[in-house]
Amino acid sequence: MKGKIAWKLVLTVLVLAWAVSAMVPFTDTPFETYIANRATKNADEFANILKEAGKRVDPVNYKKDPTKSSTLYTAITEYANENKIDLSKYFDVNVSDIKILKKRNDVLIRELYRQSKSSLKKGLDLAGGVSFTLEINEDELLDDMFSRKGQLEDVVRVLDSRINGLGVTEPSIRVVGSNAIEVQMPGVSLKDNPEAVEELSRPARLEFRLAHRSILPSSANAPKREWPIGYELLVEENAARDGSIIEKPLYIKKCAEALGDIIDHSGVSMDDAGRFSVGMDFTSEGSKKFEEITRKILAKDAKYAGSANEYEQKQLLAIVLDGKLMSAPRIISVISDRGSITGDFNQREALELANALNNPLKVGLNRTSMNEVGPSMAEGARNSSLMAGAIGAGLVLLFMVLYYRGMGILAMITVAANIVFILGTLASFGATMTLPGIAALVLTIGMAVDANILIFERMREELNAGKSMWNSLQAGYEKAFSTIVDANLTTLLTAVILWKLGTGPVKGFGVTLAVGILATLFCALIFGRALCEIVISLGWFKNSFKWKLIGETNVDVMKHFKSMFIASWLVILCGVMAVAYRGDKCVSIDFTGGEMQTLSYAEKLSVGDITSVSNDTLGEVQASYQKDLATGNEILTVQTETGKGEAVFEALKAKYPQADLKLVGKESIGASVSSDITKNAVISLLLAFGGILLYVALRFEIGFGVGAVVALVHDILMAIGLYVILGMFGIGSGLFSAPMIAAILMTVGYSINDKIVVFDRIREELPLNPAMSLYDVIRKSINKTFARTILTSVTTFFAALALFVFGTGIIKDFSLIFLLGIITGTFSSIFIASPVFYAWHKGKRKNVEAAQDMEIKHEWEE
């Protein structure tokens, strides 16, 4: 027995150690302090370099004086590059694969900066970040407004995919005006690291262009008067043996032969010499295009084969990224299906390039502004929401300890480990933590105890049957195992579909949900079991199940099926009517877009003060402070619904005259949640329903799947409808913003988990009670799981209720949706899902047995 417990504990310790290490460092370290302490080699020598670099820092005059730098970050790299100092000899960071000294120093400092920051970044609402505007050249945009809108939305989609591959970074990307895109990135500081912003705002537009056959530039700085018409001078950089840069200037045709959209997929490979290249698989149309280009090049090469000009004999095809010449290879054969980009870049740069090529832009972008963005949530709101989270967690802990005593303490230890696993995994993904994310994590505490409650209630049944504590534990885990696995795998299937097919916050929710499910399974079935086996083998916690809140029930819920079904769908109908009545008032600026006003001020107001002017007349108001890097000026941006900007401005001036607000600029803004995200969310959800139906049909049978899907649709519609109705009476805003997508999806995850528990009990009771009718089996199963259903709902409800009562703003709405989801999910588990299953089989047990291929001999058949 000791061996069986030992391996579980060892595995848990190893996983916990990994999770904690992934979260290190827990907080940011000032870059100057971090880099000074990290110089483990020749520390005194580096201290002098740091001192000299520090003399260059002048954030006020650095633009006027080229000998000055804006930050210590740039000062170190500029000082080292100017004096040809190899910074890698002072640090234990492996950058030896980078041959060019300047590039090696840049990558090293960038990596040290990354390591100085906490692994879990804070989101825009908690800590702010950086905002930059990318403007599209007017001559590349179509005149037709609908076509132009499609172009802009395509750019938003591409940028979101490029920045946020897993959906856990949570950028805000939207159209501004008629030809610009605003990107807000959380957790990035312009003050500390402008180079990171340069990297993030790099458009990555790929072009394939021809080099001039016969004319070479006289130098890398050849004057424009020498340039051939229709060509521009670009320079390819390669590494010399000493790490210096060898420049190869070429005249490159301005008109591209093809753009990056001919590429279907791109990946990184490494040759025997350790050089990285980026492989490109072309689309079907791209393959034809590239084959045509290379065939024409080879035909001309054959024509010039006898030329006296050696350079003229071979045409170079330039690969240009964002106007920079990456490489200019000679074409030696016709290329159609696959090509590659070679250059003097390291693995990280190759991966970044591959990611950019996988998300190509069809238009050129120019960055026109960069701003630091303050937190979008007021400090008081953040503090109250964090306090609400602590209260919610405390209520769950208190309930579990009071109800299950010692075993409740063990359950909460496993839940704590669960949270560590989730945070560690998200940190390894580079996730950004926002307040809705933290709220979701707190609510996960309520959901994570479900497996423990299920096991404990099974143990209670075995104890009541006269078994010992040890045997009850083994039987409880054995009987709860399939239920826990089925419930979590069904939810995991939903998570995978949302991750693979969703975009933006939907994708991020899928990733977080999947991580949470796997962590819950591990903690409940391995770590939690090991703890329980240890304490029970020691004879502890014998009285953990003496107190029972809910006794044996024998409620005939099936008798009320029709009336409850009709009543609940009448409520849903009222909700649909409320949504139709409120129309656009139900939807946030996140979905509809609106107006953005730029204001100057004499006295700084809090974000909470500004948004407090919101009412039914003025509509939704969002606000943030932004600091322009170029001028150092801080401005206030106020976002409103379309047509209400002026009214909100006047209301702010009247309410806060001391602020002396003045209008600096005004422009329209697009939705931060694009139509693609919304469409993919709906498609992903529908496919998730199909996946649930299929899984439950295969694991159970089709009737259970139908019951589950009908109940899920019921829960979503009722939760949304009630949320809007309550908003009309001042309870919550009744407004759907970006985080509401996650709240609705969370309701789905909670609800399906609850349904599977009941279904699994029905499946178990059918062969155990061969003489019972289907009606009585369902009634008995619902009553057997009634205590677990209510207890799980109560613990989760506590966590959500604390967030609703003590939280503010979006947290209040987020928790309200989930509170309604808990209520509707619990209701449908009892009154909707199983009765629909019963109706599907027309109330006949033999239909279920035939579908499940059961071999049961009934008494009436003897």
Automatic annotation (TrEMBL):
Residues 247-358 form the SecDF P1 head subdomain domain. The chain crosses the membrane at residues 386-404, 409-431, 437-456, 477-499, 511-541, 561-581, 681-698, 705-729, 735-753, 789-811, 817-840. It is found in: Cell membrane. Residues 364-523, 658-842 form the Protein export membrane protein SecD/SecF C-terminal domain. Gene3D superfamilies: 3.30.1360.200, 3.30.70.3400, Multidrug efflux transporter AcrB transmembrane domain (1.20.1640.10). Keywords: Cell membrane, Membrane, Protein transport, Signal, Translocation, Transmembrane, Transmembrane helix, Transport. Residues 153-211 form the Protein translocase subunit SecDF P1 domain. Pfam families: SecD_1st (PF21760), SecD_SecF_C (PF02355), SecDF_P1_head (PF22599). Residues 1-22 form the signal peptide. It is a multi-pass membrane protein. Part of the Sec protein translocase complex. Interacts with the SecYEG preprotein conducting channel. SecDF uses the proton motive force (PMF) to complete protein translocation after the ATP-dependent function of SecA. Forms a complex with SecD. Part of the essential Sec protein translocation apparatus which comprises SecA, SecYEG and auxiliary proteins SecDF. Other proteins may also be involved. Forms a complex with SecF. Part of the essential Sec protein translocation apparatus which comprises SecA, SecYEG and auxiliary proteins SecDF. Other proteins may also be involved. Belongs to the SecD/SecF family. SecD subfamily. Belongs to the SecD/SecF family. SecF subfamily. NCBIfam families: 2A0604s01 (TIGR00916), secD (TIGR01129), transloc_SecF (TIGR00966). This is Multifunctional fusion protein. It comes from Intestinicryptomonas porci. The gene is secD.
